[in-house]
Design brief:
alpha/beta; binds flavin-adenine dinucleotide; Rossmann fold; single chain; 2 domains; 6 helices; 263 residues
Length: 263
């Protein structure tokens, strides 16, 4: 297999759109990089041309087209605060595309929580038959369910399952409840479950998929410092024994390869 191509480049912010709930859509110029990216892969990004903060931050690719890279970024700390307050035209450092992709399969069942929606949106956009996919997308409130118009343009309405913890949009509760009902109601279907979101959500999705005899892939969300296997900050416990780097072996893993009880 060819070694994965990685590029470090200085990009420029083309557009920043606030989406509410602390989320922002960022569009960067990333010539060469954007065209090579696949669903599930991520980039390491740092705002501006200074060394503050020293380390870049990892972000899943929401969409990549031509020379443009799209990210969905939630401001949680200093690195994301700087990124989500950048002015248009400002410089960034971008490294990528990095990591493993989700396997493309018809009839896949997508399970998203929070910014975990980003790589699954890329997946649906790149899919040759998005109408065969189902999306289970959960958040705390309606305000945290993002880009619904874009999802509605991609998947049939009946394939969109929105869930909020406070019941402000869609079903009230956790996203794993309708996922479990759906898999039980469709025992003959074989599409994989692809999950990205908080670790407890992915752990539950993996258990539900296993009980339904469906393959399951998860995109792990471990804080990482380098993004290419040097710092060992993002290791996850492996079923085969020991630990694996989620930046180089993942972030997308077969859920059966993760030792969930040790997380
Ligand atoms: C493969 C991958 C893909 C990601 N994709 C996205 C994305 O598409 N959009 C997005 O908004 N964020 C994404 N993240 C998370 C993002 O990298 C962190 O939110 C970011 O690094 C925080 O940097 P900061 O300087 O703002 O916060 P810091 O000051 O570094 O940390 C602020 C708080 O966030 C916590 N934190 C930092 N990183 C993580 C993490 N990975 N998981 C859980 N808690 C964390 C810290 O412990 C601390 O409590 C992704 C992470 C990974 C590993």
């Amino acid at each position: 297999m060819m070694p994965q191509m990685k590029k470090i480049l200085k990009g420029n912010l083309l557009r920043r759109t606030g989406l509410g709930g602390g989320y922002h859509l960022l569009e960067f110029t990333a010539p060469g990089l954007a065209g090579e990216a696949g669903p599930g892969q991520f980039v390491m990004v740092r705002a501006g041309s200074t060394h503050h903060p020293l380390l870049s931050r990892p972000f899943s690719i929401l969409w990549a087209e031509g020379d443009t890279l799209h990210l969905l970024v939630k401001a949680v700390g200093e690195g994301t605060r700087l990124l989500t307050t950048m002015g248009e035209g400002e410089a960034t450092l971008v490294l990528g595309p990095l990591g493993a992709e989700f396997p493309l399969a018809d009839g896949a069942v997508l399970v998203a929580g929070g910014y975990g929606m980003a790589p699954l949106y890329f997946y649906a956009r790149r899919h040759r038959c998005p109408a065969s996919l189902h999306l289970f997308y959960g958040a705390r409130t309606a305000q945290h369910l993002l880009l619904l118009d874009r999802w509605r343009a991609l998947l049939p309405e009946a394939h969109l399952h929105f869930v909020t913890e406070d019941g402000s949009l869609g079903e009230k509760g956790l996203v794993t409840a309708p996922l479990e009902r759906f898999l039980k109601a469709n025992p003959a279907a074989a599409g994989p479950v692809l999950a990205c979101g908080p670790t407890p959500m992915m752990k539950a999705s993996a258990a539900i998929a296993r009980a339904a005899d469906r393959p399951c892939y998860v995109s792990m969300d471990e804080p990482m410092a380098c993004g290419f296997g040097i710092c060992l900050g993002c290791v996850v416990p492996a079923t085969a024994g020991g630990y694996v780097c989620s930046c180089t072996k993942g972030p997308v893993f077969d859920a059966a390869a993760i030792r969930w009880e040790a997380l």
